[in-house]
Automatic annotation (TrEMBL):
PANTHER family: RESPONSE REGULATORY DOMAIN-CONTAINING PROTEIN, STRESS RESPONSE REGULATOR PROTEIN 1. This is Two-component system response regulator. InterPro entries: Bact_response_regulator (IPR050595), CheY-like_superfamily (IPR011006), Sig_transdc_resp-reg_receiver (IPR001789). GO terms for biological process: phosphorelay signal transduction system. SUPFAM superfamilies: CheY-like. It comes from the Bacteria. Residues 20-135, 143-260 form the Response regulatory domain. Keywords: Phosphoprotein, Transcription, Transcription regulation. It holds the Pfam family Response_reg. PROSITE patterns: RESPONSE_REGULATORY. It comes from Agrobacterium bohemicum. The modification 4-aspartylphosphate is found at residue 193.
Amino acid sequence: MNFLGITGMQYSGVPFRDTRILLAEDSNVFTQMIGSRLKELLGLSVEVCRNFEELQECYERSSEEVTLAISNINLPGAENGEALEYLVDLSIPTIVFTSTFHEDTREKLLTKEVVDYILKDNVFAVDMLTESVCRFLTNHRHHVLIVDDSPTARALLSSRLKRYNFRVSLADNGAKALELLKNNADISLVVTDYNMPDIDGFELTRRIRTMRGSHELRIIGVSSSTNRLLSARFLKAGGNDFMLRPFIDEEFYCRVNQNLDTLVQIQAAKMHSKKVAA
């Protein structure tokens, strides 16, 4: 079944195979809603764990790898976040679904490198959670190229994207980026720094556009400069988006998603036009 998510994500309906999802949640209402929504829209089943003991037993009774966990911060038997600690220690990608949230909570969650967090504070919460699950399970279909001469910056962006399940390639200069693009036709997004020693972000973008159009590949520029005119110059050079550092994780992920959603929708429209013409 195809569906268009709240934030614009388009799911093609390709079935998810060998996917094991644990749902650590003690509310009967939410377990039923989540289980029903994931089954209806994505064809996914979940293993429900209503307390910390059940979560441990659920993990230990099967040798099958857990693809993703959805967890409340506080579970019976783990009122101080022990369930989340348990999942993180097992290196299980986890989406937090919680009603307990403030700035300190956010900082702790990001430190633990959870995939995402969804708040139970609105009627769309379960739909947002479903979309987050779908994004994680489909992000590996996208190949992202990071271009930055700073090893620290490359490592930070790479870590963020891999946490969200994207495939990532790295280039420390513009020439290497162009070579990788030439040899990897499946790269669908480039995240490039502006200030680089050999080819700056503007020139790299212009050269990329001679190879790949915006309907084939999206480009996000990033910079630590305080010059706000960089954004206009970058977009004029053929970029699709621009972000000034420092940016927060949620903003970065949102911009990445928006650009890839646009690309998927453009490609789907082109395929539809071809079918109609045929």
